[in-house]
Amino acid sequence: MWRHANESNSGLFKPDELSGLQAESKCIFGISKKPSELSSKPLQINAFFKDCNYMILSAPGDRLYWFLFTEMNKTYGKSIARFTKEDERLLAEQHFADRVTESTTFQDIYENRLHTTLVSLADHVFPRWHFQRIITIGDAAHKVHPISAQGGNGAMETAAVLVNTLRHRMENLSTDKNLGDDDIESVFADVQANRFSRAVDAVNQGRRTTAASIKDTFLSRLFVDYFFPRFGQSMIMRLIIKNTETGPVINDLPVPKRYEDAVARHAAKNSESNWMLWSFGSAGVGFFALFMYLTLRWSW
């Protein structure tokens, strides 16, 4: 798309569009056989350390899908690092002693690996997603940090908005007409306008979560040591439900009953609870963190 637009002298894209990509963390992603020390039941593990964190999920076939996130110097565009298998091995060995559960270390998981790769984690929302009859969705338009767990969802949301917008435009056409190039570009522009701010929010959420969980800062240590052990799982569920409730769906298609049931259960649970911290958003988190710090400081 960029090449075609530049060859057409459209002036709509910069020659270095990729320069907007930024990366300040890296990740070893892997699939492993489940170590015998871990429960055979479905599990999700979030383990935090001084300079890294883990997200580990059980999968069919006695497998684990896992991520080791670590910090790196912020880089942009073509300067974002690519890694070798030797780079991966050296990074993994630095974390072998990390105890992700009481009975399991990262070494146990890594040595049971089936597939692994080390990658830089770039994220960015590109300023323009379309040209003439071409539109990009997913990572090609809005690439988010995997710690936000919104990459695949974002692609599906943009696809749903594209379907809705295209159907609406076609329903308002005369029966003897087809969409022209101007109509198609207008549809694409409406899709981007509808999705842009939500895509930016997803990128920012990933960056905030990364900063809170792997950077060696006061706020990160406070979050990892005191906040997440007490409220982390509830926080994750609330964010997931909130994001799902506000996401676009394809018009005129029924929403699955399991989704409606899950939202209803969440609403009922919330109505029974007086804990309203997360209704204040990120500002509430900051004030709560400061409160906990002062409380702990005085208790010492």
TrEMBL record:
Taxonomically, the superkingdom here is Eukaryota
Q: Which UniProt keywords apply?
A: FAD, Flavoprotein, Membrane, Monooxygenase, Oxidoreductase, Transmembrane, Transmembrane helix
Q: Which GO terms describe its cellular component?
A: membrane
User: Which residue numbers delimit the FAD-binding domain?
Assistant: 87-168
Chain segments annotated as transmembrane:
275-296
Where does it primarily localize?
membrane
What Gene3D superfamilies does the record tag this protein with?
FAD/NAD(P)-binding domain
Q: Name one Pfam family in it.
A: FAD_binding_3
Q: Where in the cell is it found?
A: Membrane
Name the needed cofactors. Answer: FAD
Instruction: Tell me one GO molecular function of this protein.
Output: FAD binding
**Could you confirm whether the keyword Oxidoreductase appears in this record?**
yes
Q: To which protein family does this belong?
A: Belongs to the paxM FAD-dependent monooxygenase family.
Protein name in UniProt: FAD-binding domain-containing protein
